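Q: Can someone sanity-check these two? First one:
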Amino acid sequence: VLWRLSGSPVVPGSACSFTDVSRDSYAYEAIRWGTYYGIVSGYSGDSFGYGVPVNRQQLVTFLYRYAKNYAGDDTAAFEETNILKYSDSMDIAKGMTQAFQWAIGAGYISGTTDTTLSPLGPATRAQVAAIFSRYCNQCFLKVPVFG
């Protein structure tokens, strides 16, 4: 989704290094682009997790990395948002907490209830659309151009 919102750019470089992503996959260039900009990293050096549903903590991490690494947004203002009021905040994976703090603080995502974030819960299509819409409406999506 982020790749398409960015105009589906083709990045310079070699082939996608993930063995579970076929060159003829519709997502091949998007995954290559996301890897190039540090937006996605996969499950291991050679496994992307292609076809595995995205959970909420992955969703906000992708958006956070996009904002910071690709769009050049200033993410620092919300990276220290206190999320300890959510009883499951300790369930957020190492390395993804700052992304959740940013997304909550900036108003892009909210808890699934007043006291839970459900970081390991599925990112539904409706949630993805709502979160990306909030982001786009607030940031007006700055897109770098290759030249």
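And here is the second, same format, sequence then tokens:
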Amino acid sequence: MKIFLSLCLSLLLLSSCSKWLAVKPQSQVSSQQLFSTQTGFEEAMNGVYSRCSQQGEYGDELSFGFLDVLAQNYTIPSGDYQGYLQTSNYNYTDINFVSRKDTVWSGLYNAIANCNLILANIEQGKKFLSSVDYGIIKGEALAM
């Protein structure tokens, strides 16, 4: 009886459920699946716009933050609670400057990569996109 129980327990523990371990997160979609419908192309383009509107890009730093400080549009107080004082002094080795610069560039390169992915798949979209929608999506991706 002990041998039978240990054998069953061993088989149960050593067996695997491949479906159980291969769960795909709902927020991730393959590019093949994403670019198989008009909605997929529109969602991809919305994702690019959403990425660019974040705080590290046009939502803050490239609209009224980082660039305006470099252009000397603000007088930075000595308290410098936002960490722009060294940027206004053109200290390009300051940790706040480096961090903001890296955030801006990585965010913009991410948007460019996503636009390139849209453009790489837009030709297959001719099957189901109207000529107007095809032109709009392609034009927006090229413009971004």
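A (reply): Looked at the second one. The mean pLDDT is 85. The two ends are 70 Å apart (CA to CA).
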